[in-house]
Amino acid sequence: MNDWTLADIPGQHGRTAVVTGANSGIGYVTARELARRGARVVLACRDETRGRAAEELLRTEVPDADVRLAPLDLADLASVRAFADGLPEERLDLLVNNAGVMALPRRRTVDGFEMQFGTNHLGHFALTGLLLPRLRAAGDGARVVTVSSGMHLLGTVDPRDVQMDGGYRRWIAYARSKSANLLFVHELARRLAAYGSPLVAAAAHPGYAATNLQTAAARLEDRPWRERVARAANRLVAQSAEAGALPTLRAATGPDVRQDDFFGPRLQLWRGAPVRSVRAPWTRDDRASAGLWAVSERLTGVTYEWPPRV
């Protein structure tokens, strides 16, 4: 079987997509390639300056792109609600939950959540729930794709301590947030399938891809030596952001994608063409996913409508 590449992305004309964290890295490549295939793309970005620069670059690379920038800070539930309320599109064919933070020192979101769990999981949980009526309105072919990580294998979510108040370790917190992404996809897919909805929930991970994610924590802590080490590792070991975006793009556009699919690089969760990826058994646990769902609804105040209208 031939490797899946950018050439395999089907035409996206007539489709509307929202990509979070679209100003750089995997999010930018995802948005660019969707626009190149004809989709109308909303670049959902926290930093307006960086988002505007990304929009200008994308228009340079894809002159006929139908794109626009919209502010979204996933670490602020008021911003998430404002984004959803301000989205003019009545239907949405694709939501790519891509934005995230990695291995930060302990920080809190605007709403008081541990930053990695709050941004990577709760922000996207709330956003998806608020946009669900538009996604349902799109009918066949609509998808929610959430970007996780191979690092999810390092830890699952403890429902008794989702904020890690019992002891914070940055990499474990990151792993837990990425397991939360997969538990969210599992539970969403399970509920959609139970009610016969055509909306598909899938996930992807980029392997080790060279993006700004690896250097953000070092910059935040003002540790230039760590930033230099991360940049060197990106140059020497990582695959490109273009290659890292392939699993997301396959999950978003591939005709063979099924409920609760998880795509990643072929070679050791690291690099290579996108294929269905291994995942930790706890990310398919119905009891754990339902428990996390209940906690997430309580913390965000966003309640999904069940059964969904199809």
Automatic annotation (TrEMBL):
The keyword Oxidoreductase applies. It holds the Pfam family adh_short. GO terms for molecular function: oxidoreductase activity. Keywords: Oxidoreductase. The keyword Oxidoreductase applies. InterPro entries: NAD(P)-bd_dom_sf, SDR_fam. Belongs to the short-chain dehydrogenases/reductases (SDR) family. This is Short-chain dehydrogenase.
